[in-house]
Amino acid sequence: MKKDEIVVSDALVTHYLNKGYKTVTYSEPSQDPPDIILQIDQNSYPIEITKIDENSLNRRTNFAHSYGTFIKQIIAQKQSEVPKNVSYYISVRHSGTKVGKIRKKFILFFDKKILAQGFSNDEYIFLEGSVKITFKKLNTSKGGQHFPMSFSTVPVRQSNDIKDFLNSMIEPLDVGFQSIVRNSICVKSKKCSAVKPTIWLALYDFYANKFNSDDNEQILMYQNAIANITEKDNFDRILVVLESGAVVNLFDKHT
User: Fold this and answer.
1) N or C end of the chain, less CB within 10 A?
2) Architecture category of domain 3-53+175-252 in CATH
């Protein structure tokens, strides 16, 4: 079993023991999916586990990886000039343009616009050809530096009113987060479609904790994100396991 799967499985055992069940154990099945079989007293539940982070939406595309690596490298190289406590949500839109095409201009933009202004603006937008990179300030209770990213291959179109166009392309945090959660649910739904009985899905959070240190606020982010995701109906139950070890039931098909 992977480390993340063990952490989630242990959290589930603790959660259900605390709810009053007498015997709760888990085992790794011979066939994947599911990731684990959770035994609660006399009942067995197949459970698939997935990690929720900014890479959940992007890990399958080389372009996303190259842009993500490039931006992280620039931030790391300029670390001495980046404020200690700053959080921006970075969204990247492109139509297959290689990083090398915008490298020099983006570095100049980062130096002259973002660093020169000390990350003081609520938003910074880099636009070059079919590439648009948006830095949108986040209000978070967590200290330190946080730069979560999302990526899209939706091409940037030119507009007669560029200001209106740019405003319409801004992706707020809740929309980006819902996309990440939906993508994870859809990927696992397809993978587990043949599993009988209907499987449970455990989401392991590595995303909401970057914006809120309070468990209740993190739970609210997930509840809001999952509310309109119809694909959740493909699972019997969906839970989230937080960094603190807390486990919350987000969806139950039978209640």
Assistant:
1) C
2) 3-Layer(aba) Sandwich (3.40)
